[in-house]
Every structure is written in C-alpha cells, then in structure tokens.
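Lay summary. Proteins are chains of building blocks that fold into shapes, and those shapes determine what they do. In this project we predict the shape from the chain. Here is one chain we studied, written as its sequence of building blocks.
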Amino acid sequence: MAASLAETTGATIVALHVVELPPELRRWGKAESKSDIAFYRRLLRGQVAHAEDALREQVSTNVSQSAAIRCIARAGWVGETVVEVADQIDADVIVVARGRAGILGHHAERIVRLEGRAVLVAPVKASTRARASGPKAPPRQPTAPAAPQRRSRRV
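And here is the predicted shape, written in a compact code that computers can read:
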C-alpha cells in the first residue's frame, strides 16, 4: 500500500528499524567501567548494522523495486527515536502498525503522543499476525477414555 502510494506521488519511503536499548540504561547513572561502555558500544554497532541489513533484505523481498525506499536502523528508545528521525528527515507522515492483538501497541501509542505531525496507524495483515504470534499448537487428537482405576480398600 505505501509503496504504490509513494510511486504515484513520487514520495520516498523511509523504513526505520529501532534496536531498542535495554530499560536498565535509563536507570544507570554511570557504567561500571570504561571497558563496559566500549564493549556495549561495539555490540550495539553490530546489532544496528545487522538490523539495517535485515531491513534492506526484507524491503527488497516484499516491496516493489520501483518505489524509492531508504532503510535506516538506529539504536535508542523506540518512540523517541522514531520522532527524532522523522524530525531529521522532515517526514510528512509517520506510519506505524497496530499491535499483535489489533490494538494500539505501546510504541505506536508513544509515537502518537510525542509527534506533532500526522501518524497513520495501519492494520496488520492476518497472515502477518499469525506469523508474529508464532506457530499454533497442533490440533488435539481424540483419545479413548481412560479405564477407571481401582482403589484398594483397607478394612
């Protein structure tokens, strides 16, 4: 849907993936040591690079090649990072998906609350919801009723 709209209007789509920082970082006043900080930065850079590669692959597999799409991956807190990137690129509209249960997820809600521009909350396809929620358990096979067990009585 977004790709066809972008093709028609000549717009560019910016696909953003945010590598979410652990909530503990909000509470840390300072790191234990400089080596901890250096290690975490290297780890985070690797995660962001991997996320951007995966995003590019998913976009190239699922979206028409004629649409102008730019892929970005950043590390941060999701709501704040989406708003920050939207400001940097001067986005006209932000599109987010609803949560798995079909309701507004906490990240989408935060973006709507923080953002001053239009935010479109798009439905998630049923097939995507099924994949996201994981495999379903196999159907239960009917079983024969168990034979009653005898209890011994003491007299």
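What the prediction tells us: The chain has two domains: 1-76, 91-133.
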